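This protein record is not my work; I was only asked to verify it. Where you disagree with what is written, explain briefly why. This is what I was given:
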Amino acid sequence: MIDGIDLSRIQDEQTRELIVRLMNLIEQLAAENRDLRAKNQELRDEINRLKGEQGKPNIKGNKRKPDAPQNHSSEKERRSRPLERGKKSKKAQIKIDREEVVKVSAEALPKDAEFKGYVDVVVQDIVLKTDNVLFHKEKYYSASERQSYVAEMPPGYSGQFGPGVQALALVMYYGVQASEPKIHEFFANVGVEISEGQVSNLLIKKQAEFHQESAEVYDSGLRSSPWQHTDDTLTRVNGENQHCHVVCNPVYTAYHTRPTKERLSVLDVLRQGRPRIFRLNDEALGYVGNLNWSKKAWRGLLNWAQKNGEQDLEEGNFLAELDAALPKLSAQCRKALIDAAAIAAYHAETAFAVIQALICDDAPQFNWLTRECLLCWVHEGRPYKKLIPVIPLHRDLLADFLKRFWKFYAQLLLYRQSPSPEKSQILEAEFDRLFATRTGYDELDQRIAKSQAKKANLLLVLKHPELPLHNNPAELGARQRVRKRDVSFGPRTQDGVRAWDTFATLAATTKKLGLSFYCYIFDRISEAHQIVPLAHLVENAAKQLNLGWSWAPG
């Protein structure tokens, strides 16, 4: 009976309102039933595990129910139309290492056959063989100096393994995501005598040059544009959960593993590992002014702020003064105040690049970090997909709103291509109309209201049209760490953590710059240094793209 109901045909307002309430009650009960079923299954699985049995496998179906709302793939969500890609000649992209003339057998040719040139065929191949070298190092002894003189090894040759083995191990582990046992197995198959411990050392030890270049890439990347993407993902370090923070833009990607994902950890990443500095000014007070302060505590805070003014304090001094000025401060207010003072100091920095805008999801750790924040539209659309209405009318309402949602998203994409103040005003008004929608489906209306409250963050692109509308680059960066995590147990030492972050940064950045990760690694290990520093390439690429043109003065 509910399936065929048409509210527009019900004249009596009270009856119509009652039916709307009953339909929302049905949706509420259906949602509660789903939750109870899920919790019941969890309890059953836990009981089975305690009995030594296996729980119900978590297998997700790949087919959509016929009456479910149409899902948008990530690609469809990010594009107004498919990219037009012209066919490229494969032959033109292949590096030719040698040429060989293949002759026609003279016996097969008739007497009147005339030479008409060549038919070119490119065949790709690779040769896997060892290049083991026995170096005879000259040795001299000076009796007068009582000193021996031994020839130095050629550049790139140190220890038991040459630059080819070292570069291949690094690329296989960090670029191809192969595990250490698989790398060891591969080397054994091609005739390289190397132990598992030696493979591990090649991947982690003596990487100072790469660590330095990774840090320079990150510094250059932060300076390359006033905005950055960011995301984080879980990672394992010595069997314990930590978090990998990803910061990137179109010309680089950087990875930083920290024990937590809280706001100060993210700020440490943005400060490039520099010591924390705190500033208790009006900006910091503005961040915490809406918290539940007692009159006495707020008065004490204002007195402390007036005393310090714009003075920067190191972490130890700041915490000592905080404990002295506000000894009975609640844990919530204390943590928020520490975060606010650290962020205020970060915004006042002039010694290094300070990010003006972050592109991210609406996770709380990203609040306050930058002056402006653009929320990812794809993330904003996902909660709507999680709505599972059981009433046909509600399914129709959800489908209709999502259609309008993604239509507006497509309009924003077009705006980025040719922005203007007039178009900006039109789109802002369209946003207000879209998110002022009230459907009568309570869960949907609550979701719409939440999106409406994020207007400033969702429409920052109207002010800065060069900003992407989604956070896909950071998500893809985080996905690389997930794939690495799937084939490896994770680093066990801080040296391992640093190596993971360094080479993930270099692998992702070389890819964005159009460089071969292997060629780059081999270039550095062999000490050829024919490839210019990546930081310079990042800087030049950013200038060509003009990533922050709307922030430029004038």
Notes: The first strand starts at residue 139 and ends at 142. The CA atoms of residues 163 and 526 lie 6 Å apart.
